[in-house]
Design goal:
Radius of gyration: 16 Å
Number of strands: 9
Largest sheet: 3 strands, antiparallel
Order of helices and strands: EHEEEEHEEHEHE
Shape: globular
Low-confidence stretches: none
Distance between the termini: 30 Å
Oligomer: single chain
Number of helices: 4
Structural class: alpha+beta
Length: 168
């Protein structure tokens, strides 16, 4: 099941393409999303590793998640220096749009059609009061490939690593 609701990732990217997912501390407006996608497209077209152009793509998904994708199979893979360049780019974009892409202690889940976020303490409380349960779909930003993004990005809480933060 494809769990990416909307995207413009080109079909040419292989399932083994490497992916990085950054969650924003806030949802973006539609105009912010359009602007950021333009910045991401510009970065992806200029992203290089050892002076070789990477086959890359960047995009905002669900008005909250920044993804960067590199096809290591068809082209050069990302190296340490190119990954460092992408992190600097994401930090700069975060400053420009007043958001934090690096807070790993905030978790995102689906509430109907809406994406909601919760911190570690709130997660346990929402579980205790029944607002969320083991079937609630959580975003797993630890996926490493485009194939995993399509099939394992959304995982029921009971089957995800987030479960360890819930007290029974």
């Amino acid at each position: 099941m494809n769990q990416i609701i909307t995207n413009t990732i080109p079909d040419a990217f292989s399932a083994q393409s490497r992916i990085w997912i950054y969650q924003s501390s806030r949802a973006f407006t539609e105009s912010d999303t359009v602007e950021m996608n333009q910045h991401l497209k510009g970065f992806a077209t200029q992203w290089v590793s050892h002076q070789r152009q990477l086959i890359a793509h960047g995009e905002i998904l669900h008005r909250r998640f920044l993804i960067l994708l590199v096809d290591d199979v068809q082209g050069s893979g990302a190296s340490g220096c190119s990954i460092d360049a992408s992190v600097r780019f994401v930090q700069e974009l975060g400053k420009a749009y007043d958001t934090d892409f690096f807070n790993r202690l905030t978790f995102a889940f689906m509430d109907g059609e809406a994406v909601k976020t919760v911190d570690q303490v709130e997660l346990s409380q929402l579980y205790s009061d029944g607002t969320i349960n083991d079937q609630t779909l959580f975003f797993d930003h630890l996926v490493k490939t485009y194939g995993e993004l399509k099939t394992h990005w959304l995982v029921p809480l009971g089957q995800s690593w987030h479960r360890r933060f819930v007290k029974r």
